[in-house]
Amino acid sequence: MIVAQPVLAYLRDRLRESLVPKELVNDVDLLRMLSEAYRDACERTRCLQAFTTITFTGAASYPVPDAWFETTGVYTRGSTLPEVPHRLPTLDWPSGDPVQRVHTGRTISFAPLPTAGSAILHYAESPVNFTNIADPLDPRYPQEYAYLLVHHVRWKMQTLAGGAKHIQASAFERNIYDAGIAAMRKTVGVVNRAGPARITLGERPLAS
Amino acid sequence: MSQRHVDLTSDCQRRVAAETGILQSAAMLVVPAGTAGVQLDPVVVRLLAVTTGNVEVLPMRAADYLRDRSGGFAFEPTQAAYALIGRTLYLSPDPSVDTTLTIVYTQRTVDLDETLTLELTGGYARLCEQLVGAYALLDDGQPELAAQGLADYQAELQRLRLHAQRVGVGVASRRIGMRP
Question: Which of A199, A195, A144, A155 has its CA nearest to residue A177?
């Protein structure tokens, strides 16, 4: 009885079917290219949403989680912390000013320096690379959009191959990929079919 | 029947089911006391409604949920709300007793075997067939024909969505209540 293969094996076979001969690209390289495509799709759609709590200890900065890719929002005591330009946290802040945040590389700082309490960091993650053809996709990645990875790999392969015919084909693949990314992005963070949330909470005024 | 055919049909059926939202189902979900979040089952594509008892649980943005969770003020809702972050459904406020939710959702199809028994029927099954054809052309290195196939697929998808909207099923449906 033939049953559907795990998703990566299926995608690999589709790529082998078309333009990726084994003599030129082995399975390890193909897995790496699928990983790159997967990372690109996850980062462009911000589909891997997560959050963590940062407990203030008086430190000048706090490392973000390993898988962190982009901050969606930071919240403390009912307020959204605004992001400020890099140089500002080093300045003297009058006491009583509202707390703000700044990202420097893979660390986050707050100013004026909070010494107690905590904040919630809401962020998008980068996926881990595939190491095996049997690896599953992250459950937060909608499986319906697995086909996008095939188009990303073909787009890159056709571009590398060069020549008018391949360049034209690469543009075609890229168009499909971009349209799919735009469609997938609309599904992230949507809580029901009616679109936006039906209740929203007011912002609490920022306080130090 | 080849492995390729089974894989391709399985993938296309999954995509058609998600894009049309035609397969809908309901299930019970228990949120234990003191636990804010529960993982959604992998078959859930998109939530359509969440209720507890005969009361609707309202959807809220992740940002609002996290702002509320970060403390500072007591959010005293007259009605429970939920937010989705990743594949986890969070209830606000945290339930103080075990809470049973009924969720209505669009459903993901299961993987096929060589019998190719589709869960989709009628026009939706034909749409799946159309997508399989377009993918096959693309994989065979015929982008012009594949482009036409994919354009036909999009047009038919749109038609089926509008049809679903008219008859009141599917993700596109949004009805405004009639005043007596």
Answer: A155
Q: In a mutagenesis test of the B interface, which of A13, A75, A167 is the best target, namely the one with the most B β-carbons within 10 Å?
A: A75
**In the predicted model, is pLDDT for residue A196 greater than 50?**
no
Give the pair of three-digit tokens for residue B148.
């036409």
Higher pLDDT, B106 or B165: B106
pLDDT 10s digits, A66-123: 999 999 999 998 889 988 876 655 566 666 667 888 888 899 988 888 888 999 999 9
For residue A172, list chain B residues with Cβ-Cβ distance below 8 A. 143, 147
Specify the DSSP class assigned to residue A12.
H
**Token pair 């993700």 is at which residue?**
B171
Strand partners, A103: A108
Q: How far is Cα B68 from Cα A204, in angstroms, rounded to an integer?
A: 10
DSSP string, B114-165: TT---S--HHHHHHHHHHHHHHHHHHTT-HHHHHHHHHHHHHHHHHHHHHHH
The residues near A50 (Cβ < 8 Å, ≥ 6 apart) are: A65, A67, A122, A123, A124, A125, B85, B86
User: Do A164 and A170 contact (CB within 8 A), yes or no?
Assistant: no
Determine the Cα–Cα distance for residues B52 and B103; give it in Å rounded to an integer: 9
B6 and A2 within 8 Å at the Cβ level: the answer is: yes
Output the pTM of the full model: 0.88
What pLDDT, in 10s, does the model give residues A137-183? 999 999 999 999 999 999 998 888 888 888 888 999 999 999 999 99
